[in-house]
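subagent[fold] <- orchestrator: predict structure for attached chain, return tokens only, no commentary.
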Amino acid sequence: MIDGRVGIENKNETNINDLSVDDKDFKREKLLMIDEKRLEYRLKNLVFSQNLFNTWNRSKREFFEKYIMDIFWSDDSDKDRQFEEKMTFGRDFHTLCQRIFIGIQPFTSEDQSNGLIESSQVENLRKIYRLKKKYENTYGDRVKFFPEYKMTLDNGVFVIYDLLVLIFKDLSSSELERIDIWDWKTEGKEIREMDANSKMQTVVYLYACGEGIGKNVDKANISMHYYQPHLDNNVFVKYSEQRHKEYSEYIEKTIKEIQENRVWE
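subagent[fold] -> orchestrator:
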């Protein structure tokens, strides 16, 4: 679904922001480095992820370097190494959570005895397992789990849900009653409701769900959960028809601005 598109970035890489040209010459210098045909192709085939939108809002210059010119670099600083360690830890935890929801044992007693998995990680995974059992005990066969679910909309908006939970109205129907989006967070800082409501991830993930798999679902029956198992902190964001209208207008306006605006400053 995303073949031929550009814009899915490597979160572990750092874009170049410090250029040797003066700010006033930045636009002219950069446009000389890319021909019109290539520019049109890249703008037309962008994949609009939460990180792309964040980059566009933060710095047009960074956006151009990262998504149009494909210029990246990674340093070897302590900060960069610490970031990579956190990302590796997060990816490993997401993989173990995925195993739980597809019915594969995430770890063995031998893994524990050999020290391949920390005791704190074991407890966090038990919380995820209990979450799954709670859904099953409440909804039985009406609930379906889709971990690491990827979705691309016709307008190029792209998301990867850590977990998409679909609850159907009855066993004989394919009609959806409710959709829960779960996002696992492993960072130490506690996420607050105010933070969750203002995150670009919230905007993009709920919008994509409302336009995609949840198009025919009452938006009040779509919600997003940011869950930090190590803190047992579940921040709940409820969707609505009004929010969907606002998010749709923002996404569509921003995509149009990106594709039509040639000012990278």
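orchestrator: received. Logging for downstream: Residues 7-21 have pLDDT under 50 and may be disordered. The longest strand covers residues 158-168.
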